[in-house]
Each structure stands twice: as structure tokens, then as C-alpha cells.
Design brief:
The protein is α+β, with helices and mostly antiparallel strands. Helices cover 25% and strands 24% of the residues. The protein contains 3 helices and 7 strands; from the N terminus they run H-E-E-H-E-E-H-E-E-E. The protein has helices at 2-16, 67-77, 114-125; strands spanning 27-28, 31-32, 89-97, 103-110, 133-135, 138-140, 142-150. The strands form 3 sheets. The protein has a 3-stranded antiparallel beta sheet. A two-stranded antiparallel sheet has the order 1-2. The protein has a two-stranded antiparallel sheet with strand order 5-6. Helix 1 runs antiparallel to helix 2 (67-77). The radius of gyration is 15 Å and the shape is elongated.
Length: 153
């Protein structure tokens, strides 16, 4: 529990410095069961896209309900084995929020440990659709970078 609280506090701290560019998981012998994904492609090559990508937008994409809802969702859905409890570090994942709110081109920017890295990818792929960027009255595609910090207490 202390580890989760530490993770949430660090994610919140790191999240505040990052700019855009619900239910519990069932357990299977102590291992997380894959969450259903609303994201159709994990790679940009799996999606068709012919529009422009904006680096600067009027409003950043965001998780439904805001940062607090995202932190709550992450704390309920991130699972790791007790063997990983002593591993500390920050996993950074980037992805595109598509105009329909789905996530694509999900990739690790910074890795820590193969098990933690895999868990971060699993959880991000399972996130519900985000609220996309609206720029000049239109939903557009935007890149987002999310750090998730693991810290033992």
C-alpha cells in the first residue's frame, strides 16, 4: 500500500511537469489479466493517418475526469509481482491521442525493468479513450508523454 501511495505521489509530481506532445483487474494466479483495450493499433503503421500533427495546441489532451481520475485509474490497474517491489525508477511512455480519443503509437521512451516496462505498456494500452485536443474547433491528433514513477518506501 505504501508503495502504491509512493507511486501515485511521484506520478502526480512528474505529471505536473509534462506537456502534451474502471474497474479493477481480475487476478489470474496472482498475475494481472489483460485489460480490454479501446485502442485499435499500438503502432502508427497499424493506423491510417493523413492529417497534420500539431506540436502546439490550444488545450492538451487529457484522461476523462482529469489528472485525479487518471491517478486513481492507474493505482487500481497497475499490478506487479512482489519481486518488483524493490525496483525503483521512472518508466516514460509516449503515445498519440487520436481525434476519436483512442491511443496509438504507444512506445516506451525510458525503461527501468522488463517487468515494470511490460506492465506500463499493458496498462496504457488498456486505458479508456481520452478527451482529444480541440484546435480551431476540430479534434486533432496530439502526442502525449506520461512518466510513471515506481518507488518503494
Amino acid at each position: 500500500m505504501k508503495l502504491r501511495l509512493g507511486i501515485l505521489l511521484l506520478v502526480l509530481t512528474c505529471f505536473m511537469g509534462v506537456n502534451a506532445q474502471t474497474s479493477k483487474t481480475a487476478q489470474n494466479n496472482g498475475l494481472p489479466v489483460p485489460l480490454p483495450s479501446s485502442n485499435k493499433g499500438d503502432s502508427i503503421t497499424e493506423r491510417e493517418f493523413t492529417g497534420k500533427v500539431f506540436d502546439v495546441v490550444d488545450e492538451n489532451p487529457h484522461f476523462p475526469g482529469g489528472n485525479g481520475a487518471m491517478l486513481d485509474w492507474l493505482s487500481k490497474n497497475i499490478h506487479y509481482t512482489s519481486g518488483c517491489a524493490s525496483i525503483q525508477g521512472r518508466v516514460v511512455v509516449s503515445f498519440f491521442v487520436e481525434p476519436d480519443g483512442s491511443l496509438s503509437d504507444i512506445e516506451l521512451v525510458q525503461k527501468v525493468d522488463p517487468e515494470l516496462d511490460k506492465e506500463v505498456l499493458r496498462v496504457v494500452k488498456a486505458m479508456p479513450k481520452w478527451i482529444p485536443v480541440i484546435h480551431n474547433g476540430q479534434a486533432i491528433r496530439a502526442k502525449y508523454t506520461l512518466p510513471i514513477t515506481f518507488r518503494s518506501e
